[in-house]
Structure formats: C-alpha cells, structure tokens
Amino acid sequence: MAIEGPLRELGIHDVFQLLDLSRKTGTLTVTSQLRDNEGVVLFENGKVISASIKSNPHRIGDLLVRSGRLTDADLAMVREAQAKGDRRRFGEILVGLGLVTSREMERQMRLQIEAVVFELMSWSEGHFRFTEGMSEDALRDASAPLGTESLLMEGARRIDEWSRIADRVPNLSVIPDLAPGDADHPALLDLLPQEWKVLAMIDGQTDLRSIAATLSMSEFDVARIVYGMVSTGVVLLRQPTRASVPVALPSEPRKSVHQTPMGTPPSALRRGAEFFRAGRLEDGIATWSAFVESTPKYPAASALREAVVGATKLVEVLEREVPRER
C-alpha cells in the first residue's frame, strides 16, 4: 500500500522520520510543480541507500569521471560487468577492481545522498509518494545504508547555516571569480587546504555546483568557503546570465581581471604565478598544488608538480640556511 500526500500536510522531515521508525523498504518520490523538480530516495529497513534529483541527475559513476577518479573506460567496464550478470552493487565492483578505495566510494555516495536529501528538506510545497519494494536494478547503484536520523539532524543544521550565508551566496548557480588585486597592497591569504582547493578552481566560468562536483566536496561546504572569500573581498560572484551583475559584494563591483580570451592559462595558474613572481613562495606552492590535485588531467600537470617540488625544496633550504628574522 502506497503512502502519499501533500507536503503542506506532512513535511518531508516527518515523512523521513515515519519511514525510519517503521523500518520501511521502498522508493520515496517527491515532486514539486513550483520548482519543476523531482527527487527519488531509496530506503532499506528505514535507512537511506540511494538518492537522485531531476535538477542534478548525474549518477555516481558520472560524478567519479568528472572528478578524475575514473575514466570513461573504467565506467564502461563496470557497466558491462553489471550487464553480464554481476549482481554486486556498483560501488562494490569498483572497489573489487581496485579502481577506488572503499572509503572513497562511501564518501562519494554519502555526498551524493546528502546533496539530494538536504535539497528536499528545503521544500515546503509539493507531493510525496512512497511505494514499498524495489527492483534489483535500483539496488545496483545503492550505497551502504545511511542513518536517516543523522541525515535529518545535519540537514536541519545546514538549513540554518544557509539562511546565514544566503545574503551573499544566494544559490549554487552563481559563478565565482577572483577580485582584482591591489598591486600596492597585495592580500596575504591564510587558507586551509580545502579552501586552497576551492580557490584553485575559481576561473570566472564555473559555478559552485560544478566546483563541488569536480572536487568531490559537499555543495554546502563549497558555498560556505566561497561565502568567506566574498566577505573578505577575495572573490566576486555573478549570476550565470550576461545581464546580471556581481551580487552582495563588500565593495563596488569591478570587472574581473580574469575574464580573458580562450587559450589563456586557468586563473589558478596565473594567480600562483603572481605569487611566485612576488616572492610569496608558500602561497604559490599552495595554489598550484591545489590546482594540480583538483585537475590531475591538465596537460601541464606533470610539469607543474615538478615545479611545486622544486619550489618546496627551495623554501626548505631557505628556512634551514637563512632563517627568517623573528
């Protein structure tokens, strides 16, 4: 027997709790005419094992290819194995072939599920329908079960956090770009490794959702990091349409110096080069390292790695032989 109704009568949070407490196995479909969107969540004994959404339909295999962790040939090989009767789940085949580690696979699956569940939790309008049971094909792309209660708690926390950052990061479609630098007063960046990775991906063309997918980071974490960069004037944001203007900037909008012709090196490489030329070796090393790690298939990646190693050795020698004055 199906369970269904409008979200205005039974909120999505309550629907998840109901399925969790009754240990249901089946498929929850949530639709919103207002958003022209639909989400599908699979439950096994009340726990979430898979989730997808119409507005961002990439399957886990496609996401792994986009992030450089799988090749198209790897993905085709796994799909062929499933077509020939391999009954293991998608992630189990990948791990069995040594293409990804079990830890990485679990992380990727969790990121995908969280992104969908947290999106659905923000819906107050729409209709839900739960049907018991599911096909073997549906189970093939499923992950290890995730606790529904922990997902709901984290989702509630993130919704609160989103309300705080939404004034400057209104959605995941905005495109970040580096703010023009001040040659007379260069900014000193003190960033964590994850923040360097995000900064290295900012090129004035890629939106936040794509950056998160490429780095295999949660969309929420990328938005939070970019919010901090916007607040400090390091990054500007613009809407994806030509007519839009940068949003919620700390100072008057200026044209980004990184809107350059085709064939120009990525902005992360140029920014790293600026650091090196200014003698800021640590910042240059961090920027190029983050870029190479996030885009391992960049044509000059090998040469960049060698340059980073050389620069790192130079810094080590300088610190050892000519220590900085305290």
Automatic annotation (TrEMBL):
InterPro entries linked: PatA-like_N (IPR025497), T2SS_E_N_sf (IPR037257)
PatA-like N-terminal domain boundaries: 4-163
Domain of life: Bacteria
This protein's name: DUF4388 domain-containing protein
Organism: Pseudogemmatithrix spongiicola
